[in-house]
Amino acid sequence: MDKQYNNAFWHLVFVAILITIGTGVYLSSKSIDYTWRWERIPQYLINTEPQDITAPFDGTVELSDNDKTVTLIPDNGEDPFVLKQFDILNVDDGDIVFEGDALAGLDNWQIGPITWGLVMTLKISMVSLVFALIIGLFTGLARISANPALRNLSITYIELIRGTPLLVQIFIFYFFIGTVLELDRFTAGVAALAVFTGAYIAEIIRSGIQSIHPGQMEAARSLGMNYVQAMVYVILPQAFKRTLPPMAGQFINLIKDSSLVSVIAITDLSKAGREVVNSTFAPFEVWFTVALLYLVLTGALSWMVQKLEKRLAASD
After folding, report:
1. What's the order of all strands across the beta sheet hosting 96-97?
2. Of the four listed, 211, 240, 271, 273, which is most buried by Cβ atoms within 10 Å?
3. How does pLDDT run across 197-244, given as a tens digit for each residue?
4. Is 0.70 surpassed by the pTM of this model?
5. Burial category of 240 from C-beta neighbours within 10 Å (exposed 0-12, middle 13-18, buried 19 and up)
6. What order do you get walking across the sheet with 51-54 strand by strand?
7. SS3 for the chain, per residue?
8. Are 198 and 135 in contact (CB under 8 A)?
9. What angle do CA 205, 206, 208 make, to 5 degrees?
10. Confidence label for 2 from pLDDT (cuts 50, 70 and 90)
11. Would you say 259 and 272 are in contact if contact means Cβ atoms under 8 Å apart?
12. What is the number of alpha carbons within 13 Å of residue 242 lying toward its C-beta?
């Protein structure tokens, strides 16, 4: 009973802290001279404004009896313009319209620029993740190899990549390697993210393999397995379970690090946010929205990894 009481008490403390922080943020926003315009944000996520159908020339409008057909009779005697497909009618029978005036409209749902930026962030993160896993796996295996050349090459790669900023590496991949190999922006950004993340994944895999007792490899070899078979069927499955939490953290970092590719004009979520800020002059609303979308991405990934971790733990 006391334990339940203590748990309830500390849950209340947690809620009180959150309320205090929220109140502090609210009062801070009130202390600055800023007009909040949240109503501007939804159109940059999903644009539901109808698409206008404009008059191709000056003329007079004629409507059918059931208002299902709009005919624009030109003033200069040319062929009339007939419109049959529309959702919104903006003119009446007998109206005189000029070239460029809206005759009707079509209901049109379009993805806004922030959502397009979110899609690009997902795309570049997922592609980079696949290549980073491949690079990290082979580099991690080379890191513990008995071959001095492979081991020294992997150490050099890991230390070189981890010792330089990702932003500098993106510039090198785009302006130098990209120019030599004629890479587009997306490919250069993916390559930079994959190489950068692969170095960290290599160390995670290396530590996971070395955490497995050496007797596991010896037992597998004594059963007639060669080194590759023992690594694939015995060592790596166990190491994968142990490296899943740090690997998830690295995946989350990759999603956040992908925001740096905006410096080479890739319209990811961060660059889309900057463009929307320039057109709306609502920086706080836009950046809070961008931060929330990043939080949704990383939170969903963290949730999936936790589910996978529990499933693998249950299979032991």
Report:
1. 81-83, 70-74, 59-63, 96-97
2. 273
3. 999 999 999 988 888 888 888 888 888 888 888 888 888 888 888 888
4. yes
5. middle
6. 51-54, 102-106, 88-89
7. CHHHHHHHHHHHHHHHHHHHHHHHHHHHHHHCCCCCCHHHCHHHHEECCCEEEECCCCEEEEECCCCCCEEEEECCCCCCEEECCCCEECCCCCCEECCCCEEEEECCCEECHHHHHHHHHHHHHHHHHHHHHHHHHHHHHHHCCCCHHHHHHHHHHHHHHHCCCHHHHHHHHHHHHHHHHCCCHHHHHHHHHHHHHHHHHHHHHHHHHHCCCHHHHHHHHHCCCCHHHHHHHHHHHHHHHHHHHHHHHHHHHHHHHHHHHHHHCCCCHHHHHHHHHHHHCCHHHHHHHHHHHHHHHHHHHHHHHHHHHHHHHHCC
8. yes
9. 60
10. low
11. no
12. 15
Both tokens assigned to 229: 């078979």
Residue 99, both tokens: 């070239």
Give per-residue pLDDT as tens, 39-83.
888 888 887 777 777 888 888 888 887 778 888 878 777 788 888
End-to-end CA distance of the chain: 34
**Interatomic CA distance for residues 315 and 305, integer angstroms:** 15
Structure tokens at 144: 């513990």
CA distance 214 to 143: 16
Torsion 221-226-228-233 (CA) sign: negative
Residue 162, token pair as written in the block: 């981890």
**pLDDT of res. 3:** 65
Which residues lie closer than 8 Å to 45 by C-beta, 6 or more apart? 112, 114, 115, 289
> Other CB atoms closer than 10 Å to residue 119's CB: what's the count?
15
- Tokens 């109808």 correspond to 50
CA neighbor of 93 nearest in space, from 64, 50, 119, 56: 64
